[in-house]
């Protein structure tokens, strides 16, 4: 279990997160939504251990995140950040290999890299210069890297976590669905997922739980049906949209006028 307890974060004289508590049970996909600047990336980074909270604590499998050794943490959670810079001069397979730990790899490195590229549909691109790939293809290379990072560590029965910050940015429709499928499969295999998504329709499709942040606070939390409401769209996003509840899953349609 991954738990954030009463997390606050101040930076630049501003409160970015204010008393956020969040649990990520194994076997579930949690999606963070909210307007730009709501604090989503900051919360994801704090939960992943990339940024310390100003107040509160994060517990992973009962232990304070601060007490985990980085190498140990790397085998149990991996992070796809919002802006993954261009890897100049690297081949696709080199970038994926960066996800591997230096020691104690579960399978032959070449097999792991090939597996990761296969999962994201880039097996044919292994030898290409990363800079010659499209933005969406580069995003998939980084996704392969974080998947390989988790798979590389021998299983010890503890749930592993994927943290994905706007992972569908730049992906075409088919690969957005592939991303959702990867997240769902990770959860079905007993892992946990925390993903920031802007597309509420995608969020509704993939999430067991949606957490809406606004101004650094949790303003709604629950099933997609419970969170994606007309009220959320109006009060949090400030847009005049209606939620369509007629199908099995909620979806949002733009309303003209
Ligand atoms: P989101 O991912 O929801 O768009 P972020 O977590 O990236 O939001 O940022 C939340 C807010 O905190 C933004 O207004 C951002 O400008 C601000 N912020 C983030 N980091 C800092 C910092 N180090 N100093 C000052 N402001 C920051
Ligand atoms: Mg962000």
From TrEMBL:
Residues 2-240 form the ABC transporter domain. Transmembrane segments: none annotated. The keyword Hydrolase does not apply. CDD domains: ABC_Iron-Siderophores_B12_Hemin (cd03214). Signal peptide: none annotated. SMART domains: AAA. GO terms for molecular function: ATP binding; ATP hydrolysis activity. Pfam families: ABC_tran (PF00005). Keywords: ATP-binding, Nucleotide-binding, Translocase, Transport. InterPro entries: AAA+_ATPase (IPR003593), ABC_transporter-like_ATP-bd (IPR003439), P-loop_NTPase (IPR027417). The keyword Cell wall biogenesis/degradation does not apply. Part of the ABC transporter complex HmuTUV involved in hemin import. Responsible for energy coupling to the transport system. NCBIfam families: PRK13548.1. This is Iron complex transport system ATP-binding protein. It comes from Bauldia litoralis. The lineage of its organism: Bacteria, Pseudomonadati, Pseudomonadota, Alphaproteobacteria, Hyphomicrobiales.
């Amino acid at each position: 279990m991954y738990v954030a307890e009463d997390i606050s974060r101040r930076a630049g004289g501003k409160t970015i997160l204010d008393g956020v508590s969040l649990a990520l049970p194994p076997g579930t996909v949690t999606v963070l939504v909210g307007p730009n600047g709501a604090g989503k990336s900051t919360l994801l980074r704090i939960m992943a251990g990339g940024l310390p909270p100003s107040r509160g604590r994060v517990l992973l499998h009962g232990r304070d995140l601060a007490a985990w050794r980085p190498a140990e943490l790397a085998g149990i959670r991996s992070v796809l950040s919002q802006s993954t810079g261009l890897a100049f001069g690297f081949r696709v397979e080199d970038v994926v290999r960066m996800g591997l730990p230096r020691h104690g790899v579960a399978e032959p490195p070449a097999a792991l890299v090939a597996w990761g590229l296969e999962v994201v549909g880039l097996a044919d691109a292994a030898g290409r210069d990363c800079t010659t790939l499209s933005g969406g293809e580069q995003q998939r290379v980084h996704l392969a890297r974080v998947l390989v990072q988790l798979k590389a560590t021998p299983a010890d029965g503890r749930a592993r976590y994927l943290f994905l910050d706007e992972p569908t940015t730049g992906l075409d429709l088919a690969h957005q669905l592939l991303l959702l499928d990867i997240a769902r499969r990770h959860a079905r295999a007993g892992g946990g997922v925390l993903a920031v998504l802007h597309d509420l329709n995608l969020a509704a499709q993939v999430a067991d739980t949606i957490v809406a942040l606004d101004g650094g606070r949790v303003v709604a939390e629950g099933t997609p049906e419970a969170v994606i409401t007309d009220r959320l769209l109006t009060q949090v996003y400030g847009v005049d949209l209606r939620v369509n509840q007629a199908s099995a899953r909620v979806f949002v349609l733009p309303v003209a006028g």
